[in-house]
């Protein structure tokens, strides 16, 4: 029986997940590309360190640097804003810089990789520092989970930078062969974790095209009216936009012609809640009306704008203090 090296198994798993996601067509193309890049990196590690194909040795740090870039660009594309040639093409300088370091002493190459992973991890954390308000492309229902997952990816990238330092010390002072073993083990764990996190439906499922016309998009940069909360409440009442399961901060801000940050800050000041919780409050109230009118709980969940039963139950318990069935029984007896 032939035992496959762990990086080969990891590459196969990630490649299968990327191909499956592409065939099903329910995953953002940027996420698929990122997971495929993780598979390529794992394969390069295997070919270099387990099969002795040293020609892949110089390629390994270059593809590793591309992972850091892909992670950041995937975060932008799925959570913050659509990618643009300018300024996003400038990130290609990162792998180019790593390739240039191949002709320098190893210390420069190690330092560049650590800097890239720590830098891009820090950049993700910085852009997500204010919570859901900084993730306008994420569905409001899953914004807190998406925020948690991306923070995990960022933490893993920063930990990778720290581990590169440990590997450098181990190679210099440890027993012979310990460096490649540590690289292989940690890289496999990092690639699997980051790949699986990015495939979570919360961050990977692509949103439909925003139907708001370009004129409304330009209007979203205008100053907000002083009666903004009145406009928000009126819009909620007349349009019932909270019933849209794909609702995002960007979509709501464009419908109201209000900048995203102004909209979320106004709701926070007026209600003490962030935008996702404010929207979920409307959804829960709508679900309560449906259930009291005889609609089954399962139907009320999806008719109220929720995508998952677990999120509905969590928000219902937070707002009503009881599970849906217990709340309905208590109010049916009144």
Q: Note the overall shape.
A: elongated
Radius of gyration: 24 Å
Distance from N terminus to C terminus (CA atoms, Å) equals 69 Å
Run of helices and strands: HHHHHHHHHHHHHHHHH
Q: Structural class, judged by helices and strands? A: mainly alpha
Q: List the domain count as a whole number.
A: 2
How many strands, which pairing sense, and closed or not: the largest β-sheet?
none
Q: What is the average per-residue confidence, as pLDDT, rounded to a whole number?
A: 82
Uncertain segments: 211-224
Descriptive notes:
This protein has 334 residues and is mainly α. The chain starts with 5 loop residues before the first helix and ends with a helix. The radius of gyration is 24 Å and the shape is elongated. It has two domains: 6-204; 214-332, Arc Repressor Mutant, subunit A (Orthogonal Bundle). The protein contains 17 helices and no strands.
Topology:
Blueprint lengths: L5 H19 L4 H21 L9 H22 L4 H4 L4 H9 L4 H22 L15 H31 L4 H21 L2 H4 L9 H6 L8 H12 L9 H8 L3 H12 L3 H18 L4 H7 L5 H12 L3 H9 L2
Helix pairs in contact: 1-2, 1-8, 2-3, 2-8, 3-5, 3-6, 3-7, 5-6, 6-7, 7-8, 14-15, 14-16
Features:
membrane; DNA-binding transcription factor activity; Arc Repressor Mutant, subunit A; single chain; 0% strand; mainly alpha
């Amino acid at each position: 029986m032939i035992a496959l090296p762990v990086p080969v198994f990891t590459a196969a798993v990630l490649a299968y997940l990327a191909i499956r996601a592409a065939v099903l067509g329910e995953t953002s193309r940027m996420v698929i590309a990122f997971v495929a890049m993780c598979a390529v990196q794992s394969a390069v590690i295997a070919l270099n360190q387990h099969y002795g194909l040293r020609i892949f040795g110089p390629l390994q740090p270059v593809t590793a640097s591309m992972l850091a870039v892909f992670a950041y660009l995937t975060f932008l594309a799925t959570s913050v804003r659509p990618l643009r040639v300018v300024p996003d093409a400038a990130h290609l300088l990162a792998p180019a810089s790593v390739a240039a370091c191949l002709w320098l002493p190893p210390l420069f190459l190690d330092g560049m990789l650590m800097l890239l992973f720590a830098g891009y991890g820090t950049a993700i954390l910085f852009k997500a520092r204010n919570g859901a308000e900084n993730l306008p492309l994420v569905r409001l229902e899953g914004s807190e989970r998406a925020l948690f997952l991306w923070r995990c990816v960022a933490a893993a990238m920063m930990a990778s930078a720290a581990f590169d330092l440990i590997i450098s010390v181990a190679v210099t002072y440890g027993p012979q062969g310990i460096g490649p073993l540590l690289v292989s083990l940690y890289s496999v764990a990092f690639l699997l974790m980051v790949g699986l996190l990015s495939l979570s439906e919360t961050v990977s499922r692509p949103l439909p095209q925003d139907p708001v016309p370009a004129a409304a998009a330009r209007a979203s940069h205008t100053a907000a009216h002083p009666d903004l909360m009145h406009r928000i409440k009126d819009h909620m009442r007349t349009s019932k936009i909270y019933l849209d399961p794909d609702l995002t901060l960007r979509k709501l801000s464009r419908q109201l012609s209000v900048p995203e940050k102004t909209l979320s800050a106004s709701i926070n000041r007026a209600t003490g809640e962030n935008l996702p919780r404010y929207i979920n409050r409307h959804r829960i109230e709508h679900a309560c009306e449906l259930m009291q009118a005889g609609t089954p709980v399962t139907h009320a969940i999806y008719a109220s704008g929720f995508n998952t039963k677990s999120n509905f139950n969590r928000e219902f318990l937070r707002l009503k203090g009881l599970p849906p069935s217990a709340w309905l029984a208590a109010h049916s007896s009144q």
